[in-house]
Specification:
Blueprint lengths: L2 H28 L14 H14 L3 E8 L4 E13 L5 E4 L2 E17 L2 E2 L2 E2 L5 H7 L2 E4 L1 E2 L3 E6 L3 E4 L4 E19 L9 H8 L23
Antiparallel strand pairs: 1-2, 2-11, 3-7, 4-9, 4-10, 4-11, 5-8, 6-7
């Protein structure tokens, strides 16, 4: 290879590297926060435990603590308390647009997960869980080829939107913190002030099911 060709190749490589670096810099300059000047959100354990206590006292299943706008999505924080059940044919729940993450605080349960639902029935649009908590979705009779998980304190479960979830056994109770990811923003916000006002009530009007809720889709609030 002649010196001229070598020099030309060297310059070409240098220019290509410079162009790649410039493209990366330009790309970095295009980045911006997806939530503009948004504050952080703090929830004390005292507030969480107030919802846990009220859930057991008033037989409430699903209680929303916060619903926060994070830019491209809403993120909800809820406390769920479920009582004893032993029913392999228990109701199945599915949410079309809202994904959920469970972190078990206390108790134990058997949970079945899977996307292939048997005999789906649309949830009424006016149902409390649809309006305030989970958005549109379905109930079902069973999950075809579902995966069974035995949950205990400290465990974490991720349930994508469209995935059915079914509690078939709870020996005594299970309490878990639930994080909801609402990418389509179909559920309303709930602020710290809203939560304080809610905790001054018995919680029955806004709870997502449970025997004590004003509008309960079934005994276990699913």
């Amino acid at each position: 290879m002649t010196p001229n060709i070598t020099r030309r190749l060297g310059w070409t490589t240098t220019l290509l590297m410079a162009a790649a670096v410039a493209a990366l810099v330009a790309q970095e300059r295009d980045y911006a926060p997806t939530c503009t000047m948004c504050p952080g959100t703090y929830i004390s354990n005292t507030e969480i435990q107030a919802y846990v206590k009220r859930g057991f006292a008033n037989q409430l299943t699903d209680q929303q603590v916060r619903q926060v706008d994070i830019g491209k999505a809403n993120v909800g924080v809820a406390v769920v308390t479920r009582g004893r059940i032993n029913n392999p044919n228990a109701n199945v729940a599915e949410h079309d647009l809202v994904s959920e993450v469970y972190h078990v605080i206390d108790g134990a349960a058997t949970l079945v997960l899977g996307p292939d639902l048997v005999e789906k029935v649309r949830r009424p649009a006016g149902e409390t869980t649809v309006r305030l908590l989970n958005g549109p979705g379905n109930n079902a009779k069973a999950i075809r080829n579902g995966t069974t998980h035995d949950l205990k304190a400290g465990d974490v479960v991720v349930i994508p939107a469209g995935t059915g979830h079914q509690f078939t056994r709870i020996d005594d109770h299970i309490t878990y913190l639930m994080i909801r990811v609402d990418s389509d923003k179909v559920t309303p916000h709930k602020t710290e002030a809203d939560s304080k006002a809610d905790l001054q009530t018995d919680g029955r009007a806004n709870a997502g099911g449970g025997a004590g809720a004003v509008s309960s889709p079934d005994r276990f609030g699913r």
